[in-house]
Amino acid sequence: MKAGKVPATRAGARMVELGREEALELLANVPLGRVGFTRQALPVIRPVNHLVHGGNVVIRTHSGSGLLNRSLGPEVVAYEADEIDPDTHTGWSVVLTGVATRITDPDDLARCQSLLVPWIDAEMAHMVRIVPELVTGYRLEAATSWARVGRPPP
């Protein structure tokens, strides 16, 4: 290596915590996420499409869904979505925890079904509303030049 050259290193990103409103806004701008729930006392994570409607997350699911088969009553779930660039290590991630319930009101069900088109070719007639209790999120921002030389700013 020639004198004066700094070896190339992969600079990381720094995490910046998001507020609830910004986290939900980011979530509303992506079509897919992952819902986490328990099945036979074990964690299960499934990819689903969603919409943010009235501050809640709404997902479509099918009759044989593990989420629906748990019970007809409310269930605590986690929901996660993100957009992270694998090359720059920048983007964001949002996780919410809340209570999921099946949407049964005919008018509410019809409205949500018209807003959220299934992303797989299957019977997806059921809708589940997740009311977020806890919303956390982080934006991953590009590291500044100090990260390339291996020392923090003064």
What does the secondary structure layout of this molecule look like, with pairings?
Blueprint lengths: L12 E5 L2 H9 L3 E8 L2 E12 L2 E6 L4 H5 L4 E10 L6 E12 L3 H10 L10 E17 L3 H4 L5
Antiparallel strand pairs: 1-7, 2-3, 2-5, 3-4, 4-7, 5-6, 6-7
- pLDDT below 50 for ≥5 consecutive residues: which ranges? 1-9, 145-149
Counting DSSP E segments of at least 2 residues, the number of strands comes to: 7
Query: Rounded to an integer, what's the Rg over CA atoms?
Result: 20 Å
Give the % helix: 10-25%
The CATH architecture would be Roll
- Termini Cα gap: 28 Å
Which class do the helix and strand fractions yield?
alpha+beta
Q: Could you name the CATH topology?
A: Pnp Oxidase, Chain A
Instruction: Give the overall pLDDT as a whole number.
Output: 80
Report the portion of residues in β strands.
Answer: over 45%
Biggest sheet, open or closed, and with what strands and sense? 6 strands, antiparallel, barrel
CATH class wording: Mainly Beta
Distinct helical segment count: 4
State the strand order across the main sheet: 2-3-4-7-6-5
| Form type | globular
CATH superfamily grouping: Electron Transport, Fmn-binding Protein, Chain A
Written description of the protein model:
The chain has a single domain (about 15-145), classed as Roll (Pnp Oxidase, Chain A). The chain is about 20% helix and about 45% strand. It has four helices and seven strands; from the N terminus they run E-H-E-E-E-H-E-E-H-E-H. It has helices spanning about 20-30, 65-70, 105-115, 145-150; strands at about 15, 30-40, 40-55, 55-60, 75-85, 90-100, 125-140. A six-stranded antiparallel barrel has the order 2-3-4-7-6-5. The two termini are about 30 Å apart.
